[in-house]
Amino acid sequence: MENSERLVVLTTPSKYDGVRQHVERAVETHGKKQDLIMKQLPHMEVAIDCLKDGTGDILGMSAFDWENYDTEGLAIVGLLSRKEPTWVLVSDDKPEYLPSRSILVCDSELLHRQMLRLRYDLTIFTSKDMAEHLGMAEEYAQLDEDDRWPWFEQLRIEDKIQGFIVPRSVHSGYRFKSRRHTLGLQRNDSDQNRERFIPPPLHGFTLLVARKGFVGSNISAMLDPSAFLAYRLENAIMDTLDPVLHERVGVHVEQRKISTILREATRIGDESTQESMLNPYGKAVKGGPRVELMIETLNPSGSITAACERVVLPENSHIGMVNLLREFLNLVTMMSTDHEELKRTIPGMPPEFSEPSLRMMDYDES
């Protein structure tokens, strides 16, 4: 390490997205073998300016920071391993066991709809609407952003609400003493009867950004290629989708071991996945990991879901993403379109098939 070049890794105070803590742990771990020093700056704008003028070498930021700030002249050199992107319910009990007509706070439209899919009897407000509902809008408006979720935690303790839904990193950042209940992909045997919550896209990523021309191999030990692949695919999916879907769609991409995927497919009786990955002799068509892609959207009441999944080889991940999107958008179009009466009957189909029918899914239903 005596002969290695010192690299200055820039970061900013925690914004409850987990990035600052993630970068700090990475510097502590890899700094034992490489000359790394972390420097914290007060704001992302300042950190970006320092990176551009050469004060630092690498800057950690979230996927949303990359989109929201001026990053001209910069490039993503890699990602740290992805943090768990699923959200959590902060409450005394699991979502299945909350009292009837419980009141929850959730600022994610997707999670709002997914929770209603699980429990249609719940009443769910955004944080702003909840404050207005309680007649505390003025008090809420005067709170600093950092104080708002602790304020709702106090309301929960006082039983004015029964819980609130936030990203996992928010719960970890505030260190609430109350229990958290993962709204996850339900891959464990114990969770197989719970509704699956495909998370909002692009959560859990920590991007390492540098000036264009920086040699990524200098920090290769810190980087996770599978996280970079997942980020590129999720980002490409979001760039393709109509903006009207952005707050209403769950997307998750992950590279996983083939043995794990097959074990889960066997447990739930997913014959199509098994057949696509095994030859007639029960052996994997090709060894190595697979990329799993998931996408879903729901109507406002959570009663209708449109979802698609694919499992592909890493080298086929781009075409797999294209095919997934094609299937999903065709499905959404079909489900959200009124069907006119057919001019002729279809042999083998019941008469009702030719009758006019209203759309199955309406994004803006009351």
Explain what the structure shows.
The chain has helices at 19-30, 44-52, 63-68, 109-118, 127-133, 137-141, 148-157, 168-174, 225-240, 258-268, 271-277, 317-335, and strands spanning 7-11, 36-40, 58-61, 74-79, 87-91, 103-106, 123-125, 163-167, 180-183, 207-211, 249-256, 290-298, 305-312. The protein is globular and about 75 Å long. The relative contact order is 0.12. It starts with 6 loop residues before the first strand and ends in a 31-residue tail after the last helix. The strands form three sheets. Strands 2-1-3-10-4 form a five-stranded mixed beta sheet, with helices on both faces. A five-stranded mixed beta sheet has the order 7-6-8-5-9, with helices on both faces. The chain folds into three domains: 7-83 and 205-223, Periplasmic binding protein-like II (D-Maltodextrin-Binding Protein, domain 2, 3-Layer(aba) Sandwich); 87-191, D-Maltodextrin-Binding Protein, domain 2 (3-Layer(aba) Sandwich); 224-366, no CATH class. With 366 residues, the chain is an alpha/beta fold. Strand 1, helix 1 and strand 2 form a beta-alpha-beta unit. It contains twelve helices and 13 strands. Helices cover 33% and strands 19% of the residues.
